[in-house]
Amino acid sequence: MSEPVFLKRTIVKQTIWSEHLQEDRKLRIYLPPGYNEVLSYPVVYCQDGEEFFNFGRIATLAGRLILEEDIEPFIIVGVEVDVAVRTQEYAPFGSRFKQYLSCFGEEIIPYIEHNYPVRRTPAERILAGDSLGGSVSLHLALAYPSIFNRILSLSGAFYPESREMLAQEEDLSWLNINMVVGLQETDYKTDTGIYNFVEMNRETKALLESRGATVSYREKDGRHLWGFWQNELSESLLYFLNT
Q1: How many CA atoms, within 13 angstroms, populate the side-chain half-sphere of residue 94?
Q2: For residues 91 and 134, is the Cβ–Cβ distance under 8 A?
Q3: 243 vs 162, which has greater pLDDT?
Q4: Quick one: which of 123, 124, 213 has its CA closest to 174?
Q5: Quick one: pLDDT at residue 243?
């Protein structure tokens, strides 16, 4: 038997030099079925890029959505991270946090937009992340609202520092965020402590809504694992792409 057509994919690996981080950063880029450089495409940028491809199976999901659900073809850019410094880059109290935001907004985005036919409006750029990747995606939008206003958060790790920064915002009516959290994530141990992700996400949802953001929020049976997020990823992508 031949493999399903949505399993056939083109994934390009690129490495760029970041002046802000003073190191190379690896990207993996999914090009959709029928990719054509004369066309233009919506784009999904993923934190934890390697995990989104390997454990989230986002390339297979994208192929299925495009070929079976008739979603407009889109490009995916996975930004890889060194797990050893992930918290330092993704958490607002991290030593590399500001440099990472600058790398993303001022180096990765221009590189992709120079080399690939992605659309350049905030409505057609989606930032996706799991756990701390979800929170750093939100912080990227707060730092670069002219670039990003669509956030896909899988069990976002909205630590107290993130919520404090959110509380200082006055008008988030420009922001659209899709949030999902697992009901079994009530005492998840991270490298900085044990957190109740359900309460954390409920409080963040309330903060966002009180400042005018558009929030699509759901709680499902699930743990803080890719097995849960992979099952939820299609619905979250469809929220932004099925329009």
Answers
A1: 23
A2: no
A3: 162
A4: 213
A5: 62
Q: How far apart are CA 131 and CA 223, in angstroms?
A: 11
Task: Read off the pLDDT of residues 96-111 as tens digits, 9 standing for 90 and up.
Answer: 999 999 999 999 999 9
Q: Which of 169, 92, 202, 102 is nearest to 136 (CA)?
A: 92
Write the burial class of residue 62 (CB in 10 Å: 0-12 exposed, 13-18 middle, 19+ buried): buried
pLDDT of residue 194: 95
- The radius of gyration of the chain from alpha carbons, rounded to an integer in Å, stands at 17
Edge-to-edge strand order for the sheet containing 23-31?
A: 10-18, 23-31, 75-79, 43-46, 125-130, 150-154, 176-182, 214-220
Whether 10 and 31 have beta carbons less than 8 Å apart is answered as: yes
For 140, counting Cβ atoms within 10 Å of its Cβ (0-12 exposed, 13-18 middle, 19+ buried), the class is buried
Amino acid at 197: F
Residue 80 tokens, joined: 């890889």
Over residues 25-43, the mean pLDDT reads 96
CATH code, residues 5-241:
3.40.50.1820
Tell me what pLDDT residue 9 has.
72
| Farthest-apart Cα atoms in the chain, separation | 57
> Residue ranges of the domains in the chain?
5-241
Concatenate the DSSP letters of all residues of 148-192 into one string. --EEEEES----HHHHHHHHT----TT-EEEEEEETT-SSEEETT
Q: Where are the beta strands (DSSP E) in 40-198?
A: 43-46, 75-79, 125-130, 150-154, 176-182, 188-190, 193-195
